[in-house]
Amino acid sequence: MKKLFVLILLAATGISCTNSKVDNAAQLITKDGMMNHIETLSSDEFLGRSTGTEGEEKSVNYLVEQFKAIGVTSGVEDGSYVQHFPLLGQKTMSHSMEVRRPSRRSTINTFTFFEDFVAWPSNQSESVDIKDAELVYVGYGIQAPEENWDDFKGVDVKGKVIIIKNNDPEYDEDLFGGKTRLYYGRYTYKYEKAKEMGALGAIIIHTTQTAGYGWGVVSNGWSRERFYVKSDENADKGNTEMNGWVTYEAGKTLFNQAGLDIDEMLKAADSPDFEPVELKNTGLSVSIEAEYRDINSRNVIAKIEGNDSELKDEYLVLTAHYDHLGITKPIDGDSVNNGAEDNAAGVSAVLESMKAYKSIQSKLKRSVLAVVVGAEEVGLLGSQYWAENPTVHPGKVTGNINLDGMNVYGETNDLVIIGYGRNTLADKVVEVAEEQGRTVKPDANPEQGIFYRSDHFNMAKVGIPAIFPNPGNEFINKPEGYAETVDSVSAANYHSVNDEINEYWDIAGAVKDTRLFFEVGFRALNDDKLQSWKQGDEFEATRLKMLEELK
Prior knowledge:
By secondary structure, the chain is an alpha/beta fold. It has helices at residues 2-26, 31-41, 54-70, 187-197, 208-211, 215-223, 248-257, 262-268, 340-359, 381-388, 424-435, 456-461, 482-493, 508-526, 540-549; strands at 73-74, 82-101, 106-111, 117-121, 127-137, 143-144, 149-150, 161-165, 201-205, 226-229, 242-246, 277-304, 315-321, 326-331, 334-337, 367-373, 397-402, 414-418, 439-442, 466-471.
């Protein structure tokens, strides 16, 4: 009995000692440390950190210097800390779209670019020349076995242009998360599905209700230069030649020509029994010319190796994007988009966290990988490249904490997790927050699909349990109405030259949150099991596949 008591006492002492060291390490995450990084990265000297510019070069050099100063090793085989990746910038120079009657080879209606449609080559080609293509309406264009949902029903769409309803079904809380927009509701999924099914082209019908934003967002966003991870010249680029959007009115024209009512068709898509509908006596002709430019971008990757002989080849991945919008048209004489909150603050949190983990490296069973990515603002391309060309197999990654924007306006009693309840890593945030007397809330606007709009999404796509923390709004020791004020300030400054350190900034909130995420990460690093998606989650099957690959 005495021996057992001694063993219990030694174990308790060991746990207490470890907790103390972890607490001490968390205290290394400081206001001064975070502000120093933010002030540097968001200074005019860094020129807004735009992709493929001198500002990106300065950012990468700074990150490498900081990781070396912390004493963490390179996460890239050549020891450079830098993962290079090729991008293409695509501009459409000419474009036309006509609705035709194939039997008579006559034009019924000519759509106007920007006003009625936007379209672009989907396979990185310089031209598209589609003549009188057959059209098939495929509802939401979703295949989701876990929901017993298949909009294609075995119909062959090869060589045809598919017309797609935006969003995913949201009329039933038991289907597709109800009003929560899943990946199935994102335009990226629909274009990827079109390629998978061998369609000649894919066109999404826009409505403000199904998109959550007006046509102007679509026309402005997709008519500018677009960016892609450059495909290998020998890679299979698929049969899909073009992607695009049309307005509701343009969609109505397409359906009317086929003797169909657009509202009835959009409504029909909500049934799991929906079957594809051919738009008879209607052909689509599309002509596009595009120009390209090559861009070299970079991710910066650093590593802290764990100490457990069996677990040290497994990793917790911390992500943040260092890029921003660069130099744009001057507003009141200021043309530099400094990106202080978005996302010098998130990069700062990763750097401070790595410093803290390094101080207790001997207490880490698994390893930590910081993946600070570029080209987020032009389409999450840096994280996409890492996910498709990982320096660590996704099945060896226990989880991902993505820090994109931090609470720079003061301490709060609460915080938000995008991905709340979806995986065990999110559960750990709730666990740690409760111990600290704080509350964790889910996304207040799940219908906006925010989970799919930052770098953690690319991690989730390859099965990695991922979370995206967002700031809370229950501020401590702030005046009445403060939350509304800073929310308005933050929204007004977002993606503008005004995203700079201002009089409302109180970095104590970011420090408090970063320390919490540090503790969450520590527990994941030392957990007996890898983190996992909850049963039935849309990414669970991919996770299981990745784990199976390692057996």
